[in-house]
Design brief:
With 352 residues, the chain is α/β, with parallel strands linked by helices. It has a single domain, classed as TIM Barrel. The protein has a 9-stranded mixed sheet with strand order 6-5-4-3-2-1-7-8-9. The chain starts with a helix and ends with a helix.
Length: 352
């Protein structure tokens, strides 16, 4: 979701759209460009399942043009592994031509110095690299290949050499029962690599081969790992607040909610999510959902069959925008991705 500052500049129109269940602008679109991946991560289904037919380059370029016409500000590219697409630079160039900010999440293993240079030259603004432990053997175990850590580190160094914007290189770390004890040393590695930010993500509770933390493990993480991680990460300006090192929360209520996978901690039982007005998730073969928590469960359109403009103004999106019951969808309880943005937008809407 894009920064609330964008909405603040156009608050009257946004307020009217929310009040009347009308479309606003797809300010932030997440696009799973490809299903394929070169790793076999324990927390992921991409290497386990067959993929459908992907959108063609020509169709993706058309959709980028449509998004630009609707006021899209940012497209985040992910997968699978997006660097497996040979047309990635062409897609980035089209986004750049419209002034759309392009960001990407990658495992980093396929990024040579030459590829890093070509991606940034084509318009890539910011990159999140997945790295699950400062211990090479542990990261390799979680990512399914003995070379994953070494290649990811090489990719990070290649990206660091060409990404010059502030806060342009971030580590994404999935916290599980397998790696949580190693994470106190993660800020040390991040600092040595020139990383700008850290983002800690609790593993999905439905992951087959990688269990989430138990209550006892969360308490141990909070007592012995998170305080050290927070102190180091704040000192290195990798996070802004200690809370970022405590993704499971610190109170009994928050921890109990996290154990159930309810990372929104009842927020959406009482407040709306504004994603239906400003966000979309596009998968690799063109199915559109309102967000990644609803992928393949609440499909609002198919870009192989219709334009993005039509589905943005279509009935499925309209129904979500006019949903008055809270939470709007059951999946909202499990999502913490947009909490800060939703709180900021709610505060804007309550400003006279």
């Amino acid at each position: 979701m894009n920064d609330p500052e964008v909405i603040a500049k156009d608050l009257s129109q946004f307020r009217d759209a929310v009040r009347n269940g009308l479309p606003y602008k797809p300010l932030y679109v997440k696009w799973k460009l490809i299903w394929a991946c070169n790793l076999r991560c324990a927390m992921c289904r991409h290497w386990r399942d067959e993929a459908g037919s992907p959108l063609s380059t020509a169709r993706i370029l058309e959709v980028i043009d449509e998004l630009a016409s609707l006021g899209c500000q940012k497209i985040h590219l992910t997968g699978g592994e997006p660097t497996l697409r040979p047309d990635l630079e062409q897609l980035l160039q089209r986004m750049q031509s419209h002034g759309i900010r392009a960001t990407m999440t990658t495992n980093g293993t396929l990024i040579s110095p030459q590829r890093a240079e070509s991606l940034v030259s084509a318009g890539l603004h910011k990159v999140n690299v997945s790295l699950d432990s400062p211990i090479p053997e542990l990261h390799n175990f979680l990512r399914g290949h003995s070379w994953a850590w070494q290649h990811a580190i090489a990719g990070i160094r290649a990206l660091r050499a060409v990404l010059t914007r502030p806060r342009s290189l971030r580590l994404n770390t999935v916290i599980s029962a397998a790696n949580y004890r190693s994470l106190a040393q993660l800020p040390d590695l991040a600092q040595r690599l020139g990383i700008d930010r850290l983002h800690l993500i609790p593993v999905d509770r439905h992951t087959e081969d990688l269990p989430p933390l138990s209550r006892w493990q969360i308490l141990r993480y909070n007592a012995f790992v998170a305080p050290v991680l927070a102190r180091k990460a704040i000192a290195a300006q990798l996070i802004d607040h200690p809370a970022a090192a405590f993704p499971f929360g610190r109170t009994w209520h928050d921890i109990s909610q996290s154990i159930q996978g309810h990372y929104a901690r009842t927020y959406y039982d009482h407040h709306p999510c504004f994603a239906p007005w400003i966000h979309a998730l596009i998968d690799h073969h063109g199915q559109v959902s309102v967000c990644c928590m609803t992928t393949h469960q609440v499909v609002v359109g198919d870009l192989q069959q219709q334009s993005f403009v039509d589905l943005w103004h279509g009935e499925p999106y309209r129904q979500l925008r006019r949903q008055s019951n809270l939470p709007q969808l059951p999946q909202c309880r499990t999502c913490d991705m947009f909490l800060a943005q939703n709180r900021a937008i709610a505060q804007l809407l309550h400003t006279p």
